[in-house]
């Protein structure tokens, strides 16, 4: 009975305090005048009565969880009638301050996010900027500053910013589910682009690939020659003059001209040579197409020679200074790594050796990067936005992000909006709306970072990238030799034997076909020279006869001398 009277008395006192408190009707909050609400006597009284009511609730319901308990003052009707006060920190593109004629307005990723959440949860909100511009850091005495301090002092209901969720902050305030996962990026000044390279046309392939292509060309030419010679030496198949022209020199020349897509002479006629030539043409098509595509990338992409390509490279070297902003989560993280023996400990010792390595603000860190010979570490989403909107396009991100964490919306301890906002954030992630907001505020155009797809340097293709086409060529060569062997076996074993008279005539018929074209040309030229010499000496005469034979040639004593013409 005493507990019930105590609860009734507490409720009456709370309602009296609420009625005595002046009502301030603030406009809906999309980005308006910055307003810092001062704590009044009514605030302190309401906070005290809230604690009394909480103890009374736990006394009446010993098994209930105070965090999940819903008191009448936290009903949806109360939420719709209350303006939620949100403290922010300006940080493009999350929160961007726009103002004209003394009126402050805000926009950005976080503003769009809280606007969506306000529609779903059904509340209005008011924004104001934190006085010291800090996110929230704890000093040696355990006192907090920035956003965390305002929440702990009940100056604001929510803190909206790219605020990292950490264990230290979780002990003082509460966080919703993270609305964005991110890593730490490395920001440097763009190095000068590489100068002209005399043999740039060789860069699409590694040297090993060029050697393999040259070896393949010679081997294919030699196989063409061997295949044609074996067929005719063993008198296999139907004789073709074109195949007889595949001398070693002509075969290699044929392979080269096919590779540079200029055709080739003579054209193959027999089946084994056609198979080998066909697979070589396929090989040439793939190689030339790949070379052309990669050469285009080399000629169009600006190549930058960055001395830092990863976090490991940064930690190993000592020529380039690196640092970060003081009194932020990343600063505290590196500081706590002292004594762990990790790469972060070595980096902390290197940074702390010179106080100039640390920046007091993000702007100062960016200026250090612009001055050169300095690497600045910060949250990758913030650095990506700076790189994309850099007017001089002289900044770039290198390496892969590291130390992944999450941003969350901060609330007071056991805040009544915590669960509602967390559920809505998860729904927005599942529906893709948060991804759409990110695409809106992180543009794809403008200057791009080094690890974005548009800025990747063209990479010379190694043997692993083109090994498959060599396997295809090897398979074609094997098929060609198998076909040639099948022809030999067929004509030796399965072809009907010719009569003895035909066998004696066949060598004589085939003999001229085994004479090379060069020998035949010499013989014809020799006969022509002999004929012309006879005309010059006058030993060739045209005699007219009065008979039916008409004219006749007389060639008495027409012999070609041994003297060179």
From TrEMBL:
<dbReference type="Pfam" id="PF10613">
    <property type="entry name" value="Lig_chan-Glu_bd"/>
</dbReference>
<keyword id="KW-0407">Ion channel</keyword>
<keyword id="KW-0675">Receptor</keyword>
<dbReference type="InterPro" id="IPR015683">
    <property type="entry name" value="Ionotropic_Glu_rcpt"/>
</dbReference>
<feature type="binding site">
    <location>
        <position position="379"/>
    </location>
    <ligand>
        <name>L-glutamate</name>
    </ligand>
</feature>
<keyword id="KW-0628">Postsynaptic cell membrane</keyword>
<dbReference type="InterPro" id="IPR019594">
    <property type="entry name" value="Glu/Gly-bd"/>
</dbReference>
<dbReference type="InterPro" id="IPR001320">
    <property type="entry name" value="Iontro_rcpt_C"/>
</dbReference>
<keyword id="KW-0813">Transport</keyword>
<keyword id="KW-0770">Synapse</keyword>
<keyword id="KW-1133">Transmembrane helix</keyword>
<keyword id="KW-0406">Ion transport</keyword>
<feature type="site" description="Interaction with the cone snail toxin Con-ikot-ikot">
    <location>
        <position position="427"/>
    </location>
</feature>
<feature type="site" description="Crucial to convey clamshell closure to channel opening">
    <location>
        <position position="308"/>
    </location>
</feature>
<keyword id="KW-1003">Cell membrane</keyword>
<feature type="region of interest" description="Disordered">
    <location>
        <begin position="500"/>
        <end position="519"/>
    </location>
</feature>
<feature type="site" description="Interaction with the cone snail toxin Con-ikot-ikot">
    <location>
        <position position="335"/>
    </location>
</feature>
<dbReference type="GO" id="GO:0038023">
    <property type="term" value="F:signaling receptor activity"/>
</dbReference>
<feature type="binding site">
    <location>
        <position position="164"/>
    </location>
    <ligand>
        <name>L-glutamate</name>
    </ligand>
</feature>
<keyword id="KW-1071">Ligand-gated ion channel</keyword>
<feature type="transmembrane region" description="Helical">
    <location>
        <begin position="279"/>
        <end position="301"/>
    </location>
</feature>
<dbReference type="GO" id="GO:0015276">
    <property type="term" value="F:ligand-gated monoatomic ion channel activity"/>
</dbReference>
<feature type="binding site">
    <location>
        <position position="169"/>
    </location>
    <ligand>
        <name>L-glutamate</name>
    </ligand>
</feature>
<feature type="transmembrane region" description="Helical">
    <location>
        <begin position="469"/>
        <end position="490"/>
    </location>
</feature>
<keyword id="KW-1015">Disulfide bond</keyword>
<dbReference type="Pfam" id="PF00060">
    <property type="entry name" value="Lig_chan"/>
</dbReference>
<protein>
    <submittedName>
        <fullName>Glutamate receptor ionotropic, kainate 3-like isoform X4</fullName>
    </submittedName>
</protein>
<feature type="signal peptide">
    <location>
        <begin position="1"/>
        <end position="20"/>
    </location>
</feature>
<feature type="transmembrane region" description="Helical">
    <location>
        <begin position="197"/>
        <end position="226"/>
    </location>
</feature>
<keyword id="KW-0812">Transmembrane</keyword>
<feature type="domain" description="Ionotropic glutamate receptor C-terminal">
    <location>
        <begin position="83"/>
        <end position="444"/>
    </location>
</feature>
<keyword id="KW-0472">Membrane</keyword>
<feature type="disulfide bond">
    <location>
        <begin position="393"/>
        <end position="447"/>
    </location>
</feature>
<keyword id="KW-0325">Glycoprotein</keyword>
<feature type="binding site">
    <location>
        <position position="162"/>
    </location>
    <ligand>
        <name>L-glutamate</name>
    </ligand>
</feature>
<keyword id="KW-0732">Signal</keyword>
<dbReference type="GO" id="GO:0045211">
    <property type="term" value="C:postsynaptic membrane"/>
</dbReference>
<dbReference type="InterPro" id="IPR001508">
    <property type="entry name" value="Iono_Glu_rcpt_met"/>
</dbReference>
<feature type="domain" description="Ionotropic glutamate receptor L-glutamate and glycine-binding">
    <location>
        <begin position="93"/>
        <end position="153"/>
    </location>
</feature>
């Amino acid at each position: 009975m005493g507990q019930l009277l105590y609860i009734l008395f507490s409720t009456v006192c709370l309602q009296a305090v609420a009625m005595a408190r002046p009502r301030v009707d603030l406009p809906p909050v999309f980005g308006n005048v910055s307003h810092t609400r001062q704590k009044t006597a009514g605030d302190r009284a309401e906070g005290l009565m809230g604690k009394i009511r909480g103890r009374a609730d736990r006394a009446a319901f010993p098994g209930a969880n105070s965090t999940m308990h819903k008191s009448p003052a936290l009903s949806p009707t109360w939420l719709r009638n209350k303006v939620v006060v949100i403290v922010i920190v300006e940080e493009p593109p999350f929160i961007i301050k726009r103002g004209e004629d003394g009126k402050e307005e805000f926009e950005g990723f976080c503003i769009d996010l809280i606007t969506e959440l306000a529609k779903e949860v059904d509340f209005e909100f008011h924004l104001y900027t934190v006085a010291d511009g800090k996110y929230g850091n704890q000093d040696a005495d355990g006192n907090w500053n920035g956003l965390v301090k305002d929440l702990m002092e009940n100056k604001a209901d929510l803190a909206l910013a790219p605020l990292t969720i950490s264990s230290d902050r979780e002990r003082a305030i509460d966080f919703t589910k993270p609305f964005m996962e991110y890593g730490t990026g490395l920001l440097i000044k763009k190095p000068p682009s590489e100068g002209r390279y005399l043999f740039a046309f060789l860069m699409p392939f590694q040297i090993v690939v060029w050697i393999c292509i040259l070896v393949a060309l010679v081997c294919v030419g030699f196989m063409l020659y061997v295949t044609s010679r074996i067929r005719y030496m063993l008198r296999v198949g139907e004789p073709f003059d074109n195949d007889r022209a595949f001398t070693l020199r002509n075969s290699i020349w044929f392979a080269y001209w096919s590779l540079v897509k200029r055709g080739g002479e003579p054209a193959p006629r027999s089946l084994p040579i056609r198979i080998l030539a066909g697979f070589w043409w396929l090989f040439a098509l793939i190689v030339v197409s790949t070379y052309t595509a990669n050469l285009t990338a080399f000629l169009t992409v600006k190549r930058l020679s960055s001395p830092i390509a990863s976090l490991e490279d940064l930690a190993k070297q000592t020529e380039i200074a690196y640092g970060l902003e003081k009194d932020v989560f990343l600063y505290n993280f590196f500081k706590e790594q002292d004594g762990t023996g990790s790469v972060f400990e070595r980096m902390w010792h290197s940074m702390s050796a010179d106080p100039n390595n640390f920046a007091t603000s993000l702007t100062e860190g960016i200026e250090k990067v612009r001055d050169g010979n300095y690497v600045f570490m910060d949250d990758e989403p913030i650095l990506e936005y700076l790189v994309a909107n850099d007017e001089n396009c002289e900044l770039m991100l290198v390496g892969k992000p590291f130390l992944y964490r999450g941003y969350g919306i901060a609330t007071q301890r056991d805040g009544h909006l915590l669960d509602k906002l967390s559920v809505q954030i998860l729904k927005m992630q599942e529906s893709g709306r948060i991804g759409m907001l990110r695409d809106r505020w992180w543009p794809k155009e403008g200057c791009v970072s080094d690890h974005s797809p548009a800025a990747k340097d063209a990479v010379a293709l190694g043997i692993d990238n083109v090994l498959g086409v060599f396997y295809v060529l090897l398979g074609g060569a094997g098929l060609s030799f198998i076909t040639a062997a099948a022809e030999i076996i067929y004509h030796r074993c399965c072809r009907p034997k010719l009569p003895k008279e035909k066998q004696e005539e066949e060598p004589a018929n085939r003999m001229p076909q085994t004479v090379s074209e060069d020998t035949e040309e010499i013989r014809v030229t020799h006969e022509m020279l002999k004929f012309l010499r006879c005309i010059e000496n006058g030993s060739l005469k045209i005699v007219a006869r009065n008979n039916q034979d008409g004219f006749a040639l007389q060639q008495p004593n027409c012999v070609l001398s041994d003297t060179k013409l």
